[in-house]
Amino acid sequence: MPLELVETWDEFTDQKQYLYTLNFGPQHPATHTTLRLILTLEGEKVVRAVPDIGYLHSGFEKLGEDLNYNQYVTIVDRMNYISPVANEIAWHHVVEKLLGIEITPRCKYIRTILAELARISDHCLNIGTAALDLGAFTPFLYAFYQREQIYDLIQEASGQRFHPSYTRIGGLMYDIRDDWIRMVREFVQTFPKAHSDIHRLLTRNRIFVERTKGIGILPRELAINLGCTGPVARASGVVRDLRKDEPYLAYGELRDTFQVVCATSGDCYARYLVRMEEMLESLKIIHAAIENLPAGPVNIDVETKEVLPPKPDTWRTIEGLIQHFELIMTNRGLETPHEEIYGAIESPNGELGFYIVADGTDRPYRCRTRPPSFVHFAVFPYLAVGHQISDMVAILGSLNIIAAELDR
Amino acid sequence: MLQSMIAGEQLLETLRERTGCPAISFSTFRDNYRILVPREYIYVVLQCLKEGFGFNMLVDITAVDYLYYPDARHRFCVVYCLLNTQTGQRLIVKTFLDEPDLNLPSAFSLWKAADWLEREVYDMFGIIFEGHPDLRRILLPESFADFPLRKDYPLRGRGERHDFPAISRAES
Question: pTM of the prediction?
């Protein structure tokens, strides 16, 4: 029977008929937390990606307006829960900038060590899970073992593993013990072995390289225009690191001990490499800081009436108790200037900033967080288009989106 | 400090000349440099800062509700944090808004970073950015009626949590 020509319907010839919409998340193993992507697919190729966020929104900024400057540190902890110490340091760094407090050298060094430990732990998790999503299970175990070591260090310093709430205005909850210094030294010695193991498992692994090289390329100009910071921007050739550019804590004194790691290609592989090398630079900072740790008090002078007295003093001396109540009682409390300030630190993920409006009381009138994850996730649609659906996992992993910080 | 004050004055002079707006004022606090711009000129000033002064990165956009702030004369303030990635200079641009007219031109055409940041400000404060390509709520559900970071919104909410429709397994 000869074939007959049939008239085609217009709507069937329409290109859009063949596009397919796929919901990626909110519960997907590769998102690691709750976020959703609406992907428009042409076969396996992504032609449009629309992120949908807000599943973890818990009103942190509104809560901050009801808590005082020391209490809010417990909420800040829970933003980027991969490296909570970095958030605490960022928050109290900005509060101290607002109040004009210069912390003691010992506190600066301890905070620097903690911030760098947080960076290593964050990068370990990011590399471990990014490799896990691409099918490599072993690096994940190596990375998480090192994270356990860092948790042990944080537990030894603060008494809590995950959300230590260790910083206070003008200092720390309490000083570290000498044993901690030995533990940090041990970590500095053992970590390079694990780091080189991960290197050997991934960096020249053919599957890993094929899955990440040339995927999700972020050009330099676009990275700046989209406000990217941290490893994401540095992998695209933006030479910016707040530790060098606007030295805070002890980074000014330690500036010769480390270098800023940059790459130019801006793909997932470059972001992986930047993170890998940054861990070694962090280790150098920790090494230099722990060997040069100054003696002396960890908190500023109690007479300034800005720092809480040590707990034994509060319980055993009348002066300590008075100082304590001067800060804690609702009709007393900290005096702040009628001012607004923006301050930021280089968190593992990028620039973590706070915009604080103070109204004279001991509670912030407004405390805006500038979350790096939020800005980086807005980049996702630009990176996703044109790639296969399986590459979404690689791009998502390389941006290191932490949903609690994304949604706050 | 003194040098940067002079640099600030120079920047202000040039800005006044180029944008034709005499009412721009400059202030510093600690290491922050801030300029206050009337709302009509905000886009021109941002454009001038980007193209003429190399502020090529928009770090943050946020807003403040001054409803209960002592001695405040305006209700809202929108804050732009800018950064020059070449010199590392930062600048904070502020503009005040009052209740009936909460419209501002969108900065999306200058910095793509403004996309989500402006959506968040709209979501939390109800400030409308004209010319934004996709001004929807970002963190809260579309059906949410209030703007929760405004000071007249209670900390515990207005019962949205309890009224949220729960879908049972049979209905889904």
Answer: 0.90
